[in-house]
Specification:
177 residues, mainly beta, 4-stranded antiparallel β-sheet, flat
């Protein structure tokens, strides 16, 4: 019995362009690639002045800063309440009037050397830690600082006695077979 020979295949590539809307006339498997067999979340808002089709009914833009928004972080401090930080462009803002509609007049810039990529954050010990790939930032509800300025860096030593004094070992030999 012969062992089958496997040939590597190149990945199939599908490009979507010249999108033409929804096709309800055909079976979903027969719809062309520039049309959609479904219209999930499509909605016509008859109350709006333009009566346009919306893809997410009820959603509206609450904050415009002029640059792309790479992250919005909600931080509930124990003493100061909810704080909302927005990473937009290369800046980190505090959204002062959240959840009201905001613009550059309703935000306070906290940091201005952010990387222009999606950022991530987590809360630990009642502090927010934000990482954008370039900076590792600490926020406690009042101040923003780089983690290096507030972090504890442990000291590690090698070849010390349990008492802390340096041992008398001058050299080490490793025996190999």
């Amino acid at each position: 019995m012969a062992i089958p020979q496997w040939k590597s295949r190149s990945p199939s590539i599908r490009t979507y362009k010249d999108l033409a809307g929804v096709d309800f006339n055909n079976e979903p498997s027969l719809v062309t690639s520039n049309r959609s067999p479904y219209s999930v979340n499509m909605y016509k808002d008859y109350r709006a002045s333009m009566q346009a089709i919306e893809t997410r009914p009820g959603f509206k833009n609450l904050l415009t800063l002029g640059d792309p928004i790479y992250g919005i972080f909600f931080f509930n401090t124990l003493t100061l309440g909810l704080k909302v930080l927005v990473h937009s462009g290369n800046k980190l803002y505090l959204w002062n009037n959240f959840p009201e509609v905001g613009d550059l007049n309703n935000v306070t810039m906290l940091f201005d050397d952010m990387d222009e990529i999606k950022s991530r954050a987590f809360v630990y010990n009642n502090n927010l830690y934000l990482n954008d790939g370039k900076n590792y930032i600490f926020y406690d509800g009042l101040i923003v600082a780089k983690v290096e300025s507030v972090a504890y860096i442990p000291t590690t030593t090698i070849a010390r006695n349990p008492s802390g004094r340096r041992s008398n070992i001058k050299s080490c030999k490793f025996i190999t077979n």
